[in-house]
Each structure stands twice: as structure tokens, then as C-alpha cells.
Amino acid sequence: MKNILITTDFSSAADNAAGYALEVARSMGSSVTLLHVFSLPTSVNCAPLNIASIKEMRRSAQDRLINLSNNYALKFPEVKINRELIRPYCYGWV
Predict the structure, then answer these.
(1) Over residues 61-65, mean pLDDT
(2) Which of 61, 63, 67, 60 is nearest to 81 (CA)?
(3) What is the pLDDT of residue 58?
């Protein structure tokens, strides 16, 4: 395996799974991509939120993802850790 995808919602269960995946990556010489899809609270009809609120949610999720990947990098220095943050798509958004 060249790269292992690790998804996270920042829960302790996700952290446990990430630890296992990082151990596998270390033993196989693989890199990992740490992925978080951040949630947007929406109404039933997916009415858009204020842009400033979305930017703040994204910034907060990005900060958490950076902190998490930095912590993993300290524990697994031989594993290359990439980060990816994705905003979910809601039908009807432009």
C-alpha cells in the first residue's frame, strides 16, 4: 500500500482507528492521508448558511485537523501524513 486513507470525526473511536492505521503505515512504509468532512448544520431544505459562519466552521475544523496531524507526526515521525478537509455538498448550493 502506498497510501492509507484515515477518516476522522475527532472522536476517541476515530483516534483509536487512526493509531492502528498509522502502525500499519509505519510497518509497510506507507504514507497516510488524514481526512475530515466537516459538517454544516442545515435546515431540511439545505438552506445556505451565512458565509462568515461557514468560514469559521471550516477554520475551526482545519485547526483541529492540523493539531491532530501534528500529534500523530510526533508519535509516528517516519510516516508522511497528508491532510484533507472537505466541505459536504448539499444539492441546490451554488
Answers:
(1) 94
(2) 67
(3) 85
Beta-bridged to residue 65, according to DSSP, are: none
Is 33 among the domain residues? Answer: yes
Report the distance separating Cα 39 and Cα 41, nearest Å: 6
CATH number at residue 20: 3.40.50.620
| Statement: residue 93 has pLDDT above 50 | no
User: Which of 34, 52, 39, 36 has the alpha carbon at shortest distance from 89?
Assistant: 39
| Residue 94, domain member (yes or no) | no
Number of separate domains in the chain? 1
**Helix extents (H) in the chain:** 12-28, 51-75
* Position 93 in a domain: no
pLDDT recorded at residue 1: 74
Q: 42 versus 88: which is more confidently predicted?
A: 88
Do the bridges between strand 31-37 and strand 81-86 make them parallel or antiparallel, or are there none, so unpaired?
parallel
